Amino acid sequence: MTVLSGKCLCGQESGSAFTFYGIWPAGQFEHSGETGAFQGRHFCTGCGSRLFSADDREAEIKLGILSEAPTPLVPSYELWIKRREPWLRPVEGAKQYDEDRK
Q1: pLDDT digits (tens, 9 = 90+) for 44-62
Q2: Which residues of 51-75 are buried (b: 16+ CB within 10 A; e: fewer)?
């Protein structure tokens, strides 16, 4: 995996032009089963796929790993839009961040 400026590019991690997550308050998230962890990111110990990240504020779940994605969710923001492919349009109504929300 290539790392630039100390950050992994999600396109390299996902194999796609983008990836999508659901964000839940930490108190409303729980998981079961064994996961591996590296720097707050949890992954499947069988195949290495990234599953979620969690801290004391929120849990960030990679929605593509769910067998049944929560379909009524609508994106409220987009991150790292400075890396958006020129052929992709912004998500209508979503707040735009050049980089991360932090």
Answers
A1: 888 888 889 988 999 988 8
A2: bbbbeeeebbbbeeeeeeeeeeeee
DSSP string, 27-92: GG----S-EEEETTEEEETTT--EEEEE-SSEEEEEGGG-SS--TT----EE--GGG--TTPPPPT
Using pLDDT thresholds of 50, 70 and 90, give the confidence band for residue 5.
very low
Q: For residues 88 and 69, is the Cβ–Cβ distance under 8 A?
A: no
Place of tokens 């991360």: 100
User: What's this model's pTM, rounded to 2 decimal places?
Assistant: 0.67
